[in-house]
Design goal:
The protein is of the alpha+beta class and 117 residues long. The N and C termini lie far apart (69 Å). It has one domain: Fe-S cluster assembly (FSCA) (GMP Synthetase, Chain A, domain 3, 2-Layer Sandwich). The relative contact order is 0.16. It is built from three helices and three strands, in the order αββαβα.
Length: 117
């Protein structure tokens, strides 16, 4: 009899499962905050999944906590080959108008942030 731990899954199957979990389990939560977390790569030898933080997730101070407590635990649960995750901010976020935190070196653009009702 073959033990469950002896079953080998290929790279493509693991990546497919990671993407499915991100789409079905993670996306709805982060989309509620105008963010998204997408797949970049998975390293079979280390079990590290690299994810792209986009929208309001890019540069957000809380993204590290979201990744560690939410996304990483969820991925590890559904995709046992994932041992840890690494997040990378979307390099194009700023040019798309996403800047979810107040920069330390300058005053925020209050005209853009304050409602005019």
């Amino acid at each position: 009899m073959v033990e469950e731990s002896e079953i080998f899954r290929g790279h493509d199957e693991i990546v497919k499962d990671i993407k499915t979990v991100l789409e079905e389990k993670v996306a709805p939560s982060v989309a509620a905050h105008n963010g998204s977390i997408g797949f970049i790569s998975f390293a079979d030898d280390t079990g590290v999944a690299t994810l792209k933080l986009s929208g309001s997730c890019s540069g957000c101070a809380m993204s590290k906590i979201t990744l560690q407590r939410g996304v990483e635990q969820t991925l590890k649960h559904y995709v046992p080959e994932v041992k840890s995750i690494v997040g990378q901010d979307d390099e194009e976020a700023k040019s798309q108008g996403y800047e979810p935190y107040f920069p330390k070196d300058r005053e925020p653009d209050w005209e853009r942030l304050v409602r005019k009702d």
